[in-house]
Specification:
Layout lengths: L2 E5 L2 H11 L7 E5 L2 E2 H9 L3 E5 L10 H7 L4 E7 L17 E4 L15 E5 L12 E5 L2 H11 L7 H19 L7 H9 L23 H16 L1 H15 L9 E5 L3 H10 L12 E2 L4 H5 L8 H9 E5 L6 H12 L9
Parallel strand pairs: 2-4, 2-5, 3-10, 5-6, 6-7
Antiparallel strand pairs: 1-8, 7-8, 9-11
Pfam families: DegT_DnrJ_EryC1
Protein name: dTDP-4-amino-4,6-dideoxygalactose transaminase
Organism: Actinoplanes derwentensis
């Protein structure tokens, strides 16, 4: 039987998994490039060296051959990311170290993670199930589960102010989602987060952030089961939307995508054109370790040129919404817009 433990964010759950595996400063953990800085953050906090493996251009997940090549005597774990909710065949990854599945883009229950040591989920804004700030570790390895249960006692509830802010942001998100305004308000959200008026995606200094000692907030925990159940009731509608994208875009995307990926010749032009047309198109991942660039990429341990497929995807892939509230007519409009922006010989 699996052990389920709830933390303040998905990255805090990953941090707890790595601690349970007893990783130490100087150890290595393999993960794909074309990922989020939130995945790298716990590694750097623990003094672990991230080793980036390139991706497969079709699945946007890790290339098993590149993972095998990256393993050294210092490798302690491999993080397998189901990018955009597209399932990675974990059985094809042949390593002798624990595998951790990054299910931040996955509705819980849709992917069988039992072959891995553990998996972690996130329930923040932009994820398939939104319940507020919070992340969950699902632990299958008995020894790891015992270590994590022992360590869980030191995690505490977040402060009352954080609880209030989290609940208020959740209610604001729900109102914006019902009004179809979430994507239009992202820039405002980022500005408010920069001013410290809302809880942002990244703490000011992850190395000293108290979030890594917090459990999931009470409000998120109370909502979670109902929100997961609601997420499952939306799957039929989301699959219909994904099928419509596949027809319009002439591209098959397996699983239940959180976002539908499309390839364009000029990403900046696609984003500008879509914005002017009132269409939601996402930029992430905009860099191999989103949203980092320049010196910050180096601080995250990424070497430019080391993962060409990831860099290609960051430059040419945009994503389209597959939320239940997505309007069906917007799919055809997006397909028409992107048809004029596709690179020669590429899928849309």
């Amino acid at each position: 039987m699996s052990t389920v433990l709830h933390y303040h964010r998905g990255r805090v759950a990953l941090h707890a998994i790595l601690e349970g595996l007893r990783v130490r400063p100087g150890d290595e953990v393999i993960l794909q490039a074309y990922t989020c800085a939130a995945v790298v953050e716990p590694l750097l906090r623990l003094g672990v060296r991230p080793v980036y493996a390139d991706i497969d251009r079709d699945s946007f997940g890790p290339d098993p051959d590149r993972i095998a090549e990256a393993v050294t005597s210092r490798t302690r774990a491999v993080i397998v990311q189901h990018t955009f909710g597209i399932p990675v065949p974990v059985e094809e990854i042949d390593v002798d170290v624990p595998i951790i599945e990054d299910c931040a883009h996955v509705t819980p229950g849709l992917i069988d993670t039992s072959r891995s040591a553990a998996a972690f989920y996130s329930f923040e804004w932009g994820k398939p199930v939104v319940a507020g700030l919070g992340g969950t570790a699902v632990v299958h390895d008995p020894e790891l589960a015992a270590a994590m249960r022992d360590g869980y006692a030191r995690y505490t509830a977040p402060p009352g102010l954080r609880e209030l802010m989290t609940n208020a942001e959740y209610l604001a998100f729900r109102a914006a989602d019902r009004a179809g305004m979430v994507w239009r308000l992202r820039a405002l959200y980022r500005r408010l987060a920069g001013m410290g008026l809302v809880v942002g995606s990244y703490p000011p200094d992850p190395r000293v952030s108290p979030e890594y000692g917090w459990r999931m907030s009470t409000g998120t925990r109370r909502r979670l089961a109902a929100r997961i159940a609601a997420g499952h009731t939306e799957l039929k509608r989301r699959r219909e939307l994904a099928d419509a994208y596949e027809i319009e875009m002439h591209r098959i995307v397996p699983g239940m995508p959180l976002r539908f990926p499309a390839v364009v010749a000029d990403k900046d032009e696609a984003l500008r054109t879509a914005g002017a047309a009132g269409l939601e198109i996402g930029s992430w991942f905009a860099t191999p370790v989103h949203p980092l660039s320049g010196p910050d990429l180096a601080l995250a341990g990424y070497t430019p040129g080391s993962c060409p497929n990831a860099e290609w995807a960051a430059e040419h892939v945009v994503t389209l919404p597959v939320r239940a509230a997505t309007r069906r007519d917007s799919i055809g409009r997006a397909a028409d817009l992107l048809a004029d922006l596709r690179p020669v010989g590429a899928h849309v």
